[in-house]
Amino acid sequence: MKIDFRYASHPVDARSYGTDELRSHFLLDPIFSADQIHLTYSMYDRYIVGGVMPVNKALKLETFDHLKSSYFLERRELGVINVGGSGKVTVDGEVFQLDKKEALYVAKESKEVTFESSGNEQALFYINSAPAHHRFTTKKVGRQDAEIINLGDDKYANKRILNKLIVNSIVETCQLQMGLTELEPGNVWNTMPAHTHNRRMEAYFYFDLEDGQTVCHFMGEPQHTRHIFMQNHQAVLSPEWSIHSGSGTASYSFIWGMAGENLDYGDMDGVAPNELK
Ligand SMILES: O=C[C@H](O)[C@@H](O)CC(=O)C(=O)O
Ligand SMILES: [Zn+2]
User: Fold this and answer.
1) Is 164 near ligand 1, meaning CB less than 6 Å away?
2) Is 166 helix (H, G, I), strand (E, B) or coil?
3) pLDDT-derived band of residue 240, with 50, 70 and 90 as boundaries?
4) How far, in Å, from the CA of 96 to the mean position of ligand 1?
């Protein structure tokens, strides 16, 4: 396992970050490395973001120094979404088959979690984890189980399909929420109009972006925005004070994940496009 660590930033400090500082504090890259579990432990709500890419062997989620626990999920819950070929996640002996864009919620106190590819195409497991106080039930959320919201309009180049996957109307969680948003062809703007939610931090992971294209991710306080150019399979941390929105040079999909004070997906403080600076 490879572990990175990130401290949280004060919004007033972040106003003066240049490109390199901004990327070193918020951009998470790489997410996927062959036969590696690569994680970042963030001080934003002690959220963990990472990727699992099992090529030649099954990979086991182990505890690491920042957790000071006897196993990874001793005091945590986990969300997994596969963005590659078919794969298998085994939780304490129970096998869950995850095809592309399917999710698994793994309950606190699950002792052994392993990941492997199970088809010809490489499985790619994107994972998020948050501290947890209660053991709920491990549950797969397949494509048909998703709650779908149609958002946006061609006219604003933001027509997209939002799939709620790990949310409390589908699976009980302590503080984790995850889902997947797909931009319709020719549409490029996500999460516009933008929002913040001081109650929750968030992380975005961009995927299914055509080779050679990019997504410009916008962050920062609504009146002090910054941008990070993102490549396929990179993630970015969004502090509780920050907007999280992006515009691509092509359409793409992304996974959002968040944790914090509440489990209310709709709790957002909207910002109209013409109020942004
Ligand atoms: O707090 C919620 C998140 O920012 C995302 O769910 C927003 C999103 O996927 C979109 O508008 O496309
Ligand atoms: Zn949000």
Assistant:
1) no
2) strand
3) very high
4) 27
ipTM for the complex shown = 0.99
Cα-to-centroid distance, 268 and ligand 2 (Å): 7
With 0-12 CB in 10 A as exposed, 13-18 as middle and 19+ as buried, what is 255? buried
Domain count, the chain: 1
Q: Which residue range is the domain that position 255 belongs to?
A: 2-275
What CATH number is attached to the domain comprising 111? 2.60.120.10
CA of 263 to the centre of ligand 1 (A): 14
Could you say which ligand is closest to the alpha carbon of residue 264?
A: 1
Residue 215 Cβ < 6 Å to ligand 1: no
Task: For residue 191, give the ligand 1 atom closest to its CA.
Answer: 11
User: Is this structure's pTM higher than 0.90?
Assistant: yes
Interval 88-141: pLDDT, tens: 999 999 999 999 999 999 999 999 999 999 999 999 999 999 999 999 999 999
Q: Residue 159: CB within 6 Å of ligand 1? A: no
CA dihedral 237, 32, 73, 1 (to 10 degrees): -110
By alpha-carbon position, which residue is closest to atom 3 of ligand 1?
Answer: 256
Region for residue 212 given its phi and psi (left: phi exceeds 0; alpha: psi -120 to 50; beta: otherwise): left
Q: How many residues does the chain have?
A: 277
What is the pLDDT, as a whole number, of residue 93? 98
What pLDDT sits at residue 72?
99
